Amino acid sequence: MKKILTVIALTAAVMVHAQDDKFTGAMKKNLAQFDSVKTTQDYTNLANNFERIGDAEKTQWLPYYYAGLALTTAAWSDQSLDKDKNAEKVKALCDKAEAIEKNAEILTIRNMAATQQMMVDPQNRWQTYGMEAGSALQKGMQIDPNNPRLYYLQGMSIFNTPEQFGGGKDKAKPIFEKAVALFKAAQPKPLYPNWGQKQAEDMLAKCQ
Fold first, then answer.
1. What is the DSSP letter of 81?
2. What is the C-alpha to C-alpha distance for residues 109 and 113, in angstroms, rounded to an integer?
3. Given this model, what pLDDT does residue 186 score?
4. Which alpha helices (DSSP H) does 58-194 contain, by range?
5. By CB atoms within 10 Å of each CB, which of 69, 70, 92, 113 scores lowest?
6. Higher confidence at residue 12 or residue 208?
7. Whether the predicted model's global pTM rises above the 0.85 cut
8. What are 91-107's pLDDT values in tens digits?
9. DSSP reduced 3-state for 16
10. Under a CB-based contact definition with an 8 Å cutoff, are residues 191 and 28 in contact?
11. Rounded CA gap, 96 and 103, in Å?
12. At residue 178, what are phi and psi to the nearest 5 degrees?
């Protein structure tokens, strides 16, 4: 009986390890595509790939996070994209991710999705999507006050806010400085988000 139980335990361990290797391999393959995708359709396909990984795994939030990141990245570059429709898909992905784990990284995606909706008509949408974007940042900082992407996004919001409303490059500069410092100190785990440092450094340079 003891030998049988040992064999069962070893078999289960091998199966778990094989599943982990399969997940890691699929994630690495799709993460590498972020450097080569260009069109909105490319980003949509990439998002679909990540979502399929998440649906297959069922216990991993990262695939849904990266699916949302792919779609928000597309929305920054494609001005013709329906920002509301895209954002609703992104938020649905965030819901899936948060059903597994609530964390600050997912809130960066919520911030970007809401910001993109707000920018369709800033004057009329600030009270809804602007507040939603700000709330996502605040919640994220409560969860992880040392997340550099939160400060990068906060700096972007302040940088793009007119000076008469409390924004501008002078107000954004210390936020970008903090973001850059946090990026340099960060030690992300394998497969975890590590984007944003170059963007923060570029924005800091614009504030000099």
1. S
2. 6
3. 94
4. 62-77, 83-100, 104-118, 122-125, 131-143, 148-159, 169-185
5. 92
6. 208
7. yes
8. 999 999 999 999 999 99
9. helix
10. yes
11. 12
12. -65, -40
